[in-house]
Amino acid sequence: LFFGGSAKLANTNDLSTDLSFAGLTFTSGAGAFVLGGSGITLSGSLVNLDNDSQTVNLPMALPATQTFNASNGNLVANGVLSGTGGLSKTGYYALTLAGNNTYEGLTTISTGTVVISHANALGTTTSGTTINTSRGAALDLRGGITLAETLTFTGANVNKSCLVNGSGTNTISSMIYSAGGRHVINGGTVLNITGGITNNPFFVVN
Q1: How many Å apart are CA 51 and CA 76, to the nearest integer?
Q2: Residue 200's closest CA among 88, 184, 98?
Q3: Which of 25, 42, 127, 138 is deepest in the core (most CB within 10 A)?
């Protein structure tokens, strides 16, 4: 499905629930769309080629690892993400995950920032989340959540925070692994790390 133009920006999916689509793309020049309604199976990528923020409120099942590409503007996924697949975040703009997500696969943040405001935003804790800091990737926690997801930081980047406490008092109760060089944590107001950090030291910038 391709969404473009600036008319009828609020859309409600009234097709059969869990109908499979090979991808959702917001084209260059598209307005700020909001998609709701029946859930779908996402069998391809979610892509934003426009500089407006695009919001997807409908649930999406991920049968395999799918790419969420915020290449030209922000993406917001408020609906529940489920399925056996994972999520690969690309693009230098932000992806916001706000749902009580249950997808089982690995979450990979290759570029840009993933903002989470729910304790289960990164899916089940089965596969964990990997953040490639050498390409400027980052994870931003907001809203007073407790994250039990295992986090692995690869690469090295001392010029940008790879773990950010964006708002509120947040807690990471799982282990944080550093698989590369030094990384920067921005603790914001209060960031509690109770699961420990292993392998390499982090810098902390308040």
Answers
A1: 13
A2: 184
A3: 42
- How far the first Cα of the chain sits from its last, in Å, is 43
Predicted TM-score (pTM) above 0.85 = yes
Q: Render pLDDT for 22-51 as a digit per residue (tens, 0 to 9).
A: 999 999 999 999 999 999 999 999 999 999
- CA–CA separation, 138 and 53 (whole Å): 19
Which pLDDT does position 181 carry in this prediction?
79
Query: Which residues, 6 or more positions from 15, have their beta carbon under 8 angstroms from its beta carbon?
Result: 38
Task: Write out the two tokens for 136.
Answer: 């400027």
Chain centroid offset of residue 90 CA? 9
Helix, strand, coil share (%) of the chain residues, nearest 5: 0, 50, 50
| 77 HSE (CA, 13 A, CB side) | 33
HSE at residue 163, side-chain half, CA atoms within 13 A, is 28
Check if the beta carbon of residue 155 is closer than 8 Å to that of residue 180: yes
- Mapping DSSP to helix (H, G, I), strand (E, B) and coil, where does residue 68 land? strand
Q: How far apart are CA 185 and CA 140, in angstroms?
A: 10
